[in-house]
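= Paired protein data =
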Amino acid sequence: MNTGDTQAWVITILVLIALIAIGFILTRQRQSRHLRERFGPEYRRVLDAHGDQTKAEAELRARERRVQRFKIVPLAPGEAARFGVQWDDLQARFVDDPKAVVAQAGRLVRELMAKRGYPMADFERQAADLSVDHPAVVENYRAAHAIVVLNERDEASTEQLRKAVVYYRELFDELLDVTHERKVIRPDSNMQVRS
């Protein structure tokens, strides 16, 4: 092989290595963009928690794979209506007993999650699982849970309890997958709160 042929082979190999590297970088960027778009603010939260993009994205991909194995099912119309009535009843009692209503709201959301097919693991696993399909409201779920913890220690204000109900309601509506109109009293606009 002459020097010209050797140089041509070296250049060809270097070009191939460069193309493979560019392909790898573009694939990684596309995967990162997919995860940022799918998880929204949860992407930043996981990135901050892990402090490393590779580890954070591995965690988010693991969540996706785990949730794909779940048998998430829609509710039958009768079940959806039953859950809706339970929520309305619960919400109507807020003024009289906000502490109990917040605890009941958390239980009703967990019951709805179980009925839809989400496994009932510890809270952090539940939130992680929800983040795959409900990234817009998972932070509200975390905020409501934090208020419930304060409520259990008798440290939550009535306003915090009201916010917890609002946060739970947003997740509840997404999980209920309400596609029909039903008259509801929105807790963020019409709920009366005693100080």
Remarks:
- Residues 3-68 form one domain.
